[in-house]
Amino acid sequence: MGTGIMSIPPGGIGAAENAIYELSKELVQHGYGVDIIDMKSNVSRGETGIVFHEVRVPSLCDAHPLLQVLSFAWRTIPELYGLKKEKPVDIIHTHSQFTGVSALLAKRLFRWKVPVIYTIHSAERILNPNLSNVFKHVAECLVLRMSDHIITPTESIRRRLISHFGLSSSRITSIPHGIELNKISPVHPLPEMENPVILYPARIGRGKNQMTLLKAMVFILKLVPGVRCVIAGPVVDGRYFSYLKKFVKENNLTSRVEFTGALPRWKIYELYEKASAVVFPTLYETQGMVLIEAMAFGVPIVASDIGPIRDIVGLEEGSAILVNPNDPEELGNAIIRVIRNGKLREEMSYKGRELVRRYFAWDRIARRIAGTYQVLIKRNLL
């Protein structure tokens, strides 16, 4: 059975891109022939059985990310046409709004009957549009309305999209991203609390809400003087980052707060191994792979009490502490509670590991997605 997967341009090692490659490897193990159309990839391809089709984008597009994406999306149409002529393609699974438009346009132009599935990796721009993402918003609305099926990582996002766009509930399925557990060794015993390390791995931007964590640090240090905070992730909002650094300086946090910048996945994994707790006070989220990764390592979590996060931690009561992401004192108290209570840390660590093992192994996720493929293919043959 053939599956064409259109990657997120540009390819890389982010959470969404990583999910695409891990899913594709599992689908190959389940007997699917998987072809990926991508712009470039820093992910080690290895001997996975996946066939990669690289689309080259003119260098003049390098100056602006939007030009890169649009050029890539346009050039995927002939690549997809050539792939379809070369071999049977039973499903086209697209992972970005612009490649989604390309797939739907190709389907219409060439009168294909192949089902197009769209996985939405980030619902923030579609549910909270603004002038900076107007093109993405328009493209995403089009893909959501015209795709044969939609996959969202959490039930909360599924319900919001059904309500927001009036979508039929039969056209949208909630299937989370998984995690490759054989690459992770849970931290046990947990690190000593003499000099606790609080980790927040996420891109730096207003939606990720690092400021609330910094304000909580001012409160925490009064009671736990040895605590350190590591904020790991690329800067996507320079103005916000300057605001954070100014706050750090004005509140004498320079020796207690570290900004690492963008890091490869293996380096993030090293930080999990050293962390006393992972905090995730994000304002918006679609799934939050940080939660899944931290739980897999057995690191206690303090996170935002918002729908998509409740969908995850609600699978195992007591696997995380949820707080109001706009309340620094509540966040600080929750972190102190985790740091000071060894029994609580051990309970959260165990429950988090069990939750991930039961619900988020890639083999389980791939089986669910393959089941969705089968339903669409059978429906298409009727």
Automatic annotation (TrEMBL):
Domain named Glycosyl transferase family is located at: 192-354
Q: Name one GO molecular function term.
A: hexosyltransferase activity
- Every copy of the Glycosyltransferase subfamily 4-like N-terminal domain together lies at 16-182
**SUPFAM superfamilies from the entry?**
UDP-Glycosyltransferase/glycogen phosphorylase (SSF53756)
Q: Which CDD domains match?
A: GT4_PimA-like
Pfam families linked = Glyco_transf_4, Glycos_transf_1
Q: Which PANTHER family match?
A: SULFOQUINOVOSYL TRANSFERASE SQD2
Know the name of this protein?
A: Glycosyl transferase family 1
Please name the source species.
Answer: candidate division WOR-3 bacterium JGI_Cruoil_03_44_89
